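Milestone M4 deliverable, item 7.
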Amino acid sequence: MVRHAVIGVDAGGTATRCVAVSLDGRVLGAGRGGGANPFSSADPAAALEGALRAALAEAGPVEVDHAVFGIAGSAAAGRPKAEEAMLRAWAAAGLGGRPRLTDDIAVAFAAGSAADAGTVLIAGTGAVAASVRAGAVVRRCDGYGWLLGDEGSAVWLGVAGLRAVLAAIDGRGPGTALGTRLAAALGVPAGDPQAIVRAAHGRPPAMLGALAPVVAGAADDGDAVAAGIAAEAAERLLATLGAVMAAGADPLSTPPAPGSGTAPAPAPAAKAPAPVVLAGSLLASGRIADAVHAGVAARYGVRPRRAVEGARGAAGLALRDLGAPAEAHAALLEAPAG
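Output delivered:
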């Protein structure tokens, strides 16, 4: 008897992950490849093909009924390149039919919830929040890159830490253990501002995100400056999420002003709040993740859900496209990682 399966792919600038999943939500095989962002990866099609082939090899003989690819950079101008890479990889792997392309934001939400609609906050190298409905982004906030946005992200943390170190050296700010720790991470002498500046400018901006754990570690060890930076990062992430949450509010739910003479409408039946999903390395664990988690619960009365790997979210969307019940998607999210 032929086993039927769907494929889920989550492709970022650094790595691509793929899973083959049974129609009842069991992971049959998984694979990895290089980055497949159409703007920053050397050969996106090859990365996608490698991840596809690895997942299919582990799954064994299957009939692939559908697939969803979530590819970073596939929105707007990047979509044609992403779609071309996806179709090349699909054909090279010997698969028929046409997979669906969406972005990594919608996939991240589906990696945390089987609901049809809700909100996702992603914080890793960059940072973005979005409202998602039916597997597509309907509104987003931030995600503008390190120069103009990505507030509270890993790169933002690294840059904020370096700024604090330079301020401490030249007398504009208080002393901080970050001076020694970040200099060591950059491989330069502590206390030499020009060496720090050269090292920072000599790295691609995304690489400065690797300094985020240094800042968080100093905060955990009691450094007041680092703790302040971490707290501000959490607040900025909550503000980004809040902008999306506020825009999603139903204006018809606002009660009439006192003295307006308008009788209030009967209260609608209570319904469960839409889910909020937290995704990305910065929100997986640690003090910033804990602060954001607590902030969402306190401000919106929602206990946020942490996303599993994005490839499972993409596979969940593929199951939903085929008309599979939400239970199959939910089972996929709850299964232990392979």
